[in-house]
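Sequence in, structure out. Go.
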Amino acid sequence: MHSFFKFAFITGLGFLVAAEVAYGQSQAPNYGTDDPGVQQRMQNQESRIDQGVKSGQLTPKEAGKLEAEQAKIRQTEQRMKSDGRLTPKEREKLHNMQDRSSRHIYNQKHDAQTANVGRNGGAAPSSMQDPRIQQRMQNQESRIDQGVKSGELTPKEAEKLEAEQAKIRQTEQRMKSDGNLTPKEREKLHNMQDRASDHIYRQKHDRQKVNTR
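Output:
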């Protein structure tokens, strides 16, 4: 009889411990990985860099460095999210990184270094429009971004590739500054993107990787 009560006591105690653990887990904060504020800031910084490239406030080299900084932030976020949550401390770190990045973008856009991209005050006429060129630029940017997120591209590699894209965008702006985009100029832009595409492929398939998990 004594053994029976002892067994019952131990069994009951085991249930209480299990229940306590389960309760504790249910009460643990579930931070998740979504943070619209972090994502919005990334989009804002990318837009500011792109505007700086198009206006000539940023040289290709400056744009490349700023994009490399954004790549590092994205990869840091990927690593933080790899355990299925993004804690308040991690969110704070990402915002602090973007604060520094924001200052760097401002400083680079307002320094003495500028790029000549030409000027064209009116709306772009049909002779300046080439949807294929714009689509290729978007495709290359998407490939670079995917490479950063997957870890196939290091921030340094992304820097070089983004600088190349910035140079192509500024070349296009200069070509359009006279109000026309000739067949020869269109061909040159496509040739530049052919080389850029090859560079992206090579960098994504070399041995340099980044651990994003």
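Check: The mean pLDDT is 86. The helical segments are 2-27, 36-55, 60-81, 88-109, 131-150, 155-176, 183-204.
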